[in-house]
Amino acid sequence: WGATEVKAPELVDAIVELTETGSSLRANNLRIIDELVASYPQMIANREAWQDDWKRKKIETLALMLRAALAAEDKVGLKMNVP
Predict the structure, then answer these.
(1) Are residues 35 and 1 part of one domain?
(2) How far is CA 13 from CA 18, 21, 32, 42, 54, in A?
């Protein structure tokens, strides 16, 4: 479980935590009392890297893989070796 959540009951009255699902908070019997900010990750390339064809291809490939991972988040993968 998260280090912050484990320490909370012994050391502090409240915490500010960055959480994606809240499962670690619930597992430690903590509850969310307010959402301060919603955060949305962004992938940003600097202009110099974007103008370099080799780097641009690498950046685009990485972005494609990240989008695919997000799209597959609720899917199940099955891998088999069949003779």
Answers:
(1) yes
(2) 17, 22, 13, 33, 51
